[in-house]
Model the fold of this input.
Amino acid sequence: AFPKRVKVVEVGPRDGLQNEKNVVPTPVKISLINMLSETGLQVIEATSFVSPKWVPQMADHTEVMQGINKVPGISYPVLTPNLKGFQAAVAAGAKEVSIFGAASELFTKKNINCSIEESLERFDEVMTAARAANIPVRGYVSCVLGCPYEGKISPAKVAEVSKKMYSMGCYEISLGDTIGIGTPGSMKEMLTAVMKEVPVGALAVHCHDTYGQALANILVALQMGVSVVDASVAGLGGCPYAQGASGNVATEDLVYMLNGLGIHTGVDLQKLMDTGTFICNSLNRRTNSKVSQACCRL
Amino acid sequence: MGTVPSALKHCLSYQHLLKEQLWIGEPAASPPAAPHPGQESQASGLPEYIKIVEVGPRDGLQNEKVIVPTDVKIELINRLSKTGLPAIEVTSFVSSKWVPQMADHKEVMRGIERHPGVQYPVLTPNLQGFHSAIAAGATEVSVFGAASEAFSKMNINCSIEESIEKFEEVAKSARNMNIPVRGYVSCALGCPYEGNVIPAKVAEVSKRLYSMGCYEISLGDTIGVGTPGSMKRMLEAVMKEIPLSALAVHCHDTYGQALANILTAIQMGITVVDSSVAGLGGCPYAKGATGNVATEDVIYMLNGLGINTGVDLYKVMEAGNFICTALNKTTNSKVARASFSTGTTN
Done:
């Protein structure tokens, strides 16, 4: 049996844009987020308080955070890789933050130049500050179904990292198939392990569609009781590990499937497609959403 | 992710990534001698073996704009014959006036290598086409019905009932000659003209085709509008009339739903899946949209589920690469796209 409702977490403005080649002007980012706020989405990841040296696309994080319409009832989480980023985020008005762990040592080393253990220690500082400021923290675990450096990732490791982040105080753990390599088989195996350590109500899946498996993987997650799914409008965001390949699953395609399953999301598909059209035009690129392609000949 | 590393050159190559994953193993040398459709994988409740019916050379090419030279078609089919695919739909014995891409049906049928253990069905819309197919050496044929009156009228200019009568002629001749007939039901999850299609209608048409002697009924989501919800409802209705082992699903990926729909079907016990190498074939009803689901992406998923197909994914990708180069187009297979771009390239 499927959940009756699914919360869709829109990551286009952050995870999506971050992996797009063209740097998007601040007003366009703000318009994108404002349009998304009109679609019925309840959670829109707005930006990342990371050093612009590392992620030039997110250099305007403060302006974006301060410039968007904050619609009551909608959450606008932002990434905060460390305490400094957290403080900047809160100063800019953030009311929810996210931290990123990984189930792969090698990925962590290549990505942020430390071990998983060390990365969690850094996050502990953020957790303490967030707790003091009453700011909810969402935890991401990358590479849950495979790593571009290590290859196979054991479900036990994913469970271990998830448990740690949950124990640290993250209210939700988003399990990310970072390179999209997973299949319904490995998704099931991984979730079975994680669900022994973290209640299913606190789990989300963040599937990449690099190998076309995202919706099938999400379907399996739903069948196992997961009711929070991350997606990116127009499937924004390529894959840094496979040039030319796609990355995030498209929110439109996800919502289409959920609608077909009679699962409530509160999202207006047409408004979502219109938003996708807007950002694709701004980026001068074709949509990665098949639903949009079919409906709008984009 | 927190940062964007210059990761490309440090990544594992796609060969390493794919080979290393448990689910991308070497396929079995050949499919099990007598696959038992009811036999399930131990813990997962899924079938142990799934037969892939490759429709690229027919359904795929038919919906490609560029006319493909006969020798390229033959080369494609010959390459597909070496991948372990058990069935390859070769061409269509339809009037070249209607489908110019299939005008060379005789030459293709006569020109291809026939590998033992591989079926090479062809489309035969009527008795004339059937005789022509047999004369050219066909040993299996397919007929196409639809679950929508409007679609039937627009497509072949007659009612469902009239089309069934034509197919009965084909089925009768085929029976006399011991030629197996596969039946297709189009618009199983929606129609470009009628919109919603009721499951009972799909069941009814399927039953007609099955009763006239079709050994297998392939249920086609012609415009790809279906979702796991509508797939389930439709299959439940059809499964009341037709044994599971005689059913196949033919999903289009126009709305990105194909793999999720196929997964739903196999969870319900379906063991035959149609697909098209490189996802060849657009959608004639939604310009620029995609059509057939890509064989590579289906196999990737089935491998990941521990389901045997007997098909070598790499060889299919290579065949896909060949035809896309010939067609001067990018593949519609995400697996192929990711594999040919990850880390070090071949």
